Hints:
The complex is a heterodimer of chains A (319) and B (142).
Chain A: E1 5-11, H1 17-23, H2 27-32, E2 36-42, H3 50-55, E3 61-67, E4 70-72, H4 73-85, E5 86-92, H5 93-98, H6 110-120, E6 135-138, E7 142-145, E8 149-154, H7 156-159, E9 164-165, H8 173-185, E10 193-194, H9 201-204, H10 236-239, H11 255-258, H12 276-286, H13 300-304
Parallel strand pairs in A: 1-2, 1-3, 3-5, 5-9, 9-10
Antiparallel strand pairs in A: 4-8, 6-7
Chain B: E1 10-15, H1 19-28, E2 37-42, H2 50-58, E3 63-68, H3 79-96, E4 104-108, H4 114-131
Parallel strand pairs in B: 1-2, 1-3, 3-4
Helix pairs in contact in B: 1-4
Amino acid sequence: MPEKVKLAYLLAGGCAGCDMAVVDLSETLLDVLPQLEIVFWAPTVADVKYKDLEAMPDGSIDVGLVAGMVRLSEQEHMVKVMRRKCKTLIALGICASMGGIPGMANMHSKKEIFDTAYFDTFSTDNPEGVVPRTNCLVDGKYELTLPDFYEKVRSVASVVDVDYLTGGCPPHHSFIGAALTAVLEGKLPPRGSWLTGGKAVCDVCKRNPALQGKERELIQDIKRVTDGEPEQDKCLLQEGYICLGPVTQGDCNAQCPNVNMPCRGCGGPIPGVKDFGLRAVSAIAASMTDEKLVDKIDCPAKLFYRYSLPSSILGGKLK
Amino acid sequence: MAMSDWKPNIIVFACNWCTYQGADLAGSLRYKYPSSINIIRVPCSGALEAEYIVEALNKGADGVLVGGCHPGDCHYKEGNYKALRRFNLLHKLLEDMGVEPERVRLEWISGSEGKRFAEVMNDFDAVIRKLGPNPRGRNGNA
């Protein structure tokens, strides 16, 4: 029997949705588990501490999965440790690959975020003005430390060189299964690329007029998802619901458009796109009938960069 | 760099069929416009991806101007209408991202408007000089 594949899993600054997606593998996971030796998966699966991972020899782990983004010095440190210890490092999910939903915080400064969290909200009672500090002395002798909270959110892929990127918020469990199988069987694309089918959401969406043998019409009006109900089987974008399907990778099999929810771009950009939001701007604006429709789109930065702001050319709001 | 030494760095994406010909005519007619203007010829204003404009700003352009054919005059029928829709949406997005809206501009300048080309360039240069250097700096470091 061949030696077991050593696997490590790190949750950086994420919501644990990717962990849930891995657990959702259920029977598939049972199939591959005999081939795997989980050496690090804190805190959810294995009882291993950071110092245990730090003590392992460099390059001793075969596959490392990292989910979540980097906002704290602790996350940056652990992501770098993972890079040193793992032969193959995979950014799991859109947070690790592009910054994800937490990346929208780059539209605000650290001060704005702290002011809201520790002072401004209706339910906050903080008369002494206590905010987190990186260290403090308790009773004059115990020094306590906290990780540093950085000014900006970064994706794992921009902090270290990752070998493969995967999209999804969270990635569909079948997709994680396929990625893991590809790694175990060694059927991998060139390093640094996305583990993807390479198709756009529109390519696999049954609402796509082209797949129904119809002409695509231009957008006549912009609607929000709360306005009315989209017609069954008609393209959401054509109906005026801003759907980012044209520029998003369709490994999800267009699950959101199938249930009347426009694509928000969690799959990451289709191949060859440098900046997701800007390409979405080009694609969406070009399919409008009238330039005045643009005025009906509220805060395009947060709409088009919902999952990719830290990876955009500008990286966030300029102060 | 001392403020007095600073000269704006302005990128003009000029459509091959109208604005670029307008620039050509401005030269032939000896109209003057500032040396801060750097023209890049593109096939059509509608061929301009939003990435080009933002990359220019990120790499330290103090202003970006897109020049196309007047509405109805596009060599490719409606490329300039497409450019207008994209530009409006991009303009809004850049405002959200904290880029001063005056730094990016769209103008229709035809091949016979040499004088207008020079006027627009003089005006844009003055606007950018008043705004000052791009806060992202010349190397994209905010």
